[in-house]
From TrEMBL:
It comes from Spirosoma sordidisoli. One of its GO terms (molecular function) is DNA binding. InterPro entries: Cro/C1-type_HTH, Lambda_DNA-bd_dom_sf. Residues 10-64 form the HTH cro/C1-type domain. Keywords: DNA-binding. This is XRE family transcriptional regulator. PROSITE patterns: HTH_CROC1. It comes from the Bacteria.
Length: 66
């Protein structure tokens, strides 16, 4: 359940910034398909990856636990 909520929060944060999955992937240096798996909840997120994502989206890590 938490994994799916986190994935949904990532998606919402990305859309709020007006970015595509491809654009976020480019900011992170990863493939769009990898980022898509994060947003769909099918890939595990490391703390390092979470930190990179929230920085790329100009958000706080707290967006993932709201």
């Amino acid at each position: 359940m938490l994994k799916q909520q986190t994935a949904e929060q990532l998606k919402n944060a990305r859309k709020a910034q007006g970015l595509t999955q491809k654009q976020v992937g480019e900011l992170l240096g990863i493939d769009e398909s990898t980022y898509n798996r994060y947003e769909s909840g099918t890939a595990n997120l490391s703390l390092d990856t979470i930190e990179k994502i929230v920085k790329a989206l100009n958000k706080s890590v707290t967006i993932l636990i709201q």
